[in-house]
Amino acid sequence: MQFDLHKIGSVILKRMMDNTINLDNCDLLFLYDNLSKELATRRYLIVLDNLWEEDGNNLERLKEMLQHGRKGSRVIVTTRNLRIVQQLRTGFLANQRKICPVPESEIIELDVLEPGDGWELMKQRAFGADDDHNGLEEIGKQIAAKCGGLPLVANALGQVMSEQRTVGAWEHIRDTKFDLGLREGHQKETLERLVLSYYHMKPKFKLCFIYLATFPKGFVMDNRHIIQQWNALGYINSRHDGQCCINYLLGMSFLRIPGSASVSPSSLHFKAPQELVMHDLVHDLVSVIGADEFIDLDATKSTSWNRARYCRHAQLTNFKNDPEAFKHIPGKLRSLHFRDLGGLQLPKKAFSRSKYIRVLDLSGHSAECQSAPSRVVLPSSINQLKLIRYLDGTGLPIKSLPKNFHALQNMETLILSNSLFEILSDSICRLTKLCYLDLSGSSGLSKLPASLGELSQLFFLNLSGCSILQELPESICELTCLHHLDMSDCCALQKLPDKFGGLLKLSFLNLSGCSKLTKLPDNVSFPCLEHLNLSSCHELENLPIDFGHLQKLEFMDLSGCYKVPLLPVSFCQLNHLKHLDLSDCHNLKELPDCFGHLFELEYLNLTSCAKLRLLPESICKLFKLRRVYLSYCLKLSELPSSFGDLELHILHMNCLRDMNDCPDSIGDMTSLTQFVTYNATSGLLDKAREIRRRLNLVGNVHEVKSGECSIVDLVGLACSDLKLEGLQNVEHPGADSLKLRDKSDIRVLQLCWEDEGGESVLDRLVPPRTLEDFSLIGYRSSEFPDWMFDISSYLPFLSELNLKGLEACDHLPPFGALPNLRRLSLHNIPNIRKIGKKFYGEGGPCLKLRVLMLNSMENLEEWWTTESTKENEEFLIPNLHYLEVVNCQKLKFLPYPPRSMFWFLSNSERVLPERGSGKLSSSIPPSEMVLGNCSFSEDKWDRLQHFPTLEIFQLTSISGLRTLPEVMRCFSSLTALHLSKLKDLGALPVWLGLLESVQKIVILDCPSMTSLPESMKNLTALKILILSECKGLETLPEWLGQLTSLEHLEIMDCPNLTSLPESMKNLPALKILKLLDCEDLETLPEWLGQLTSLEELKIGCPNLTPLPESMMNLTALNKGLETLPEWLGQLTSLDQLLIEDCPNLTYLPESLWSLSALKLLKIVGCPSLAERCQGEDARKICNIPNIEFS
């Protein structure tokens, strides 16, 4: 392949400038100038892979282009030619030390495989686990010796040998020799060894393989397009055959997936990779083998094409709108590919002499080229290609198809992606053989033809990125052969046809990014569907109740479906589901109890399901589950006790604010290789550390304090969590020697200063690119190093950022540009006064930020949440889940605060918005708020009117509040009300009874409150009532018995309460009753025994006299009773005690021995208790005259 300095420079410059510059028509001088400017300010690493150029002048020009850069810049070159290495080490720039070649001793020269190693590699391909090697192994070793130690040859031959495991076949491979007529050299030997694998390749795949010479070296091929081209040329009979060929070539290592190692057929996923590349050596081989079939047509040398008149495949380059070039195109061509054509306007008669073409690829047109026309018309001569079966017009700026285009009745594949279509012509629906249609990226396409359903053979339809397409024609439901439908990012699509579920052969459906789609059709049978992507369907509210009918579904992505509250029960019928992503389903409150029926599930992502409180017990039955992600499930409070029964490999539990512990059984999960817990509660972090130690997992925190050791001593350190303290004592050489950026194992990093000094070492302590959690504590400088102003490039995976005690800092780098930032904490940065749009950088909104915590930002006055003050601006923090603001008395969010799901405000009352959120929309309606330590005037209380969706509201430690603010009446969705430490609260308002959705009320430490309003009897949904430390409360109201839904009643530390109202006997649902530390409560009423639903009773009042006899009727208490209270010993008049059907009760209280009046003790149906009472507890009951066990 020709050495192209222009292309190398363009690729490097584009990458540095994020593809924002057009370089198609620039000259080398322009490239040199811009590269010198860009490289001079950077420390870079450039890899030039597989360099073949031997000309010293060209290599010197390459070095001249790359000579600029900051100290520490590196260029790595890989090549198979040692002469190139020597050329790079010489020349003017090398001698002048402008580009310094490494010492010869540091050149890494990879050796070939030893014969034994080559055979081992080959044997892995050639034999199965239980295959008989007799008679073949010795021949195999002889074949391995012919591979010249090259892994590629060994892999390819091993694949061929695996299909012909006979002595005769292997001997034939061993004895075959080839002479390709190449000149002597290393390349000749390599290709002649490699051609053996082609010679013995399956005959049905040889034509397919040779055809790949059509593509330039290094070209990234689309798997689906290759198969369609093979089919169009008649090389395969079906798409299945094409996929088998792809897998076969992957198995031989002739094809590879970009960025991966070689792939064995057994490891291929059932869905083949979409992108493929060919190994350069294999490309050289296929170019030699297919030399007579393929030609590269240079349009500037068209007169020399006659020698290629019988070629079947060609690529056209350097076309400059010269119509004469087409007169010399070989007439027998079956495929024609245009490459790098820039501005393209084909002449009308371009194809008049090419009547045999089956494959026409016009995708080489570049819409970015400066000379490209704004609109292109396909030449009318295209209608003469009667045999054409494949047309790729990707990127062509065409608005319509030629007249009579429908006459191309053999057309099977039509790719018109990124076109300028506004309305697609009906004529396309007359291509009766069309089976593959790609209109992706046609952002102006607003309507599809009503007759689309006439394409009866269509199996593939791609409409992704058709961003103004609002609806699909009803006839799409008639595409009975459709297997693959991609409508991702059709962001204007609002509904699907009612009969959409009737696409019986559909196996792949992508609706991701259809952000206005509100529902799916009721009937979604799709009996063949395997892959379903509904991610970022933000307005989708419910899944169809018959969702479980998708019996073959293996992959489902529901991430970002903000409004889905529940999964239908039928969901558990998805017996083949392997991959389930529910991340960022903000409104998901629970998983169905039958979730454990998804027996094939391997991957479960629940990240940022902020309302999810519990996981069903049945999840512990998913024994094939390997990866679980629970981070940012802010309300998840516990895991099932048997969670450790799972055989997980990866478990992520970051930022779980309500979980204080995790099951001990996780410590028995020996399969676990990664257990991640950052920024969780102290209890959970302690348990996680203990579990990691028990399982010997990498993840120990390495904490280095000032004076304990030199930072130089950490050079060889390997850990996942690193804390460096006392950095004020570190100097540059020590920081440099640490090479922190190279420590890719580190996931959590804390850098701490305790005094002034050492601030400049932060420039040397660039974290590794893989970092996920970063804390900067006590940094005393007002300036940040350059890398922090490009932090999104340096730390693209960072999800947690904590800044604390930055006393001199008066501005922040663009932390909002971090693409994966989920949690940001700013604590005690006193000189920050304003956070504006510079904080967000050029990356737009912080789409993934879920937790924002601000503490003691005493001078912070403004935080802008939109780019400007315009009414229709979108939130720059649109999806916040938790907003905590403590001791920020001056702070106002402008123009509006982010609409967080959970609010915690303490001594920061100005954060509440004065005028709501204007016209701005957000997927996050506020649902929970805690207000504490605030001093509110009446007009500030009115700001709560902008939170009508609150479900949980808590007021704590607010002085001077004598009654609840009237504005709370707007909380029509309120389910829980918490009032604590309101010392001046005298009475609850009458209107409290109007909040009919309230299910829980907690009143704690409100000493001035003397009574409850009668209107509360209207709270018929109330299930939980807790009254604690209400010292002014003397009686409970009679209407308490009208709370027919009440299940849980706690009265604690109400010292003046003397009795319980008789109406309580009418509480039919009451299951839990707790009476504790009520000093004036001396007797319990006889009617207590009528509370027959009671399951838990806890009484701890010091002056209480014996319990009423009616308590023997409380049989429901027995179910879970595990202990008897010590106060039982205070019942000094008790003469008979019956303990019956309490299987969980294992021992008696110590105080039982003091019951001197007790004459009879009967223990019935309590096997554990009976056994103990006849053993170690016998001393407690030895003074009782009559004891019976049965």
From TrEMBL:
Pfam families for this protein: LRR_1, LRR_R13L1-DRL21, NB-ARC, WHD_DRP
Tell me the ranges covered by the NB-ARC domain, including all copies.
5-130
Q: Does the keyword Repeat apply?
A: yes
The superkingdom of the source organism is Eukaryota
Domain R13L1/DRL21-like LRR repeat region intervals: 719-828
A GO BP entry: defense response
The reply to whether Repeat figures as a keyword in the UniProt entry is yes
Keywords for the protein's UniProt record, in alphabetical order: Leucine-rich repeat, Plant defense, Repeat
In this protein, which residues make up the domain named Disease resistance protein winged helix?
Answer: 215-286
Q: Which GO terms describe its molecular function?
A: ADP binding
Q: What PANTHER family does the record point to? A: NB-ARC DOMAIN-CONTAINING PROTEIN (PTHR36766:SF74), PLANT BROAD-SPECTRUM MILDEW RESISTANCE PROTEIN RPW8 (PTHR36766)
**Which protein are we looking at?**
NB-ARC domain-containing protein
Q: Which organism is it from?
A: Triticum turgidum subsp. durum
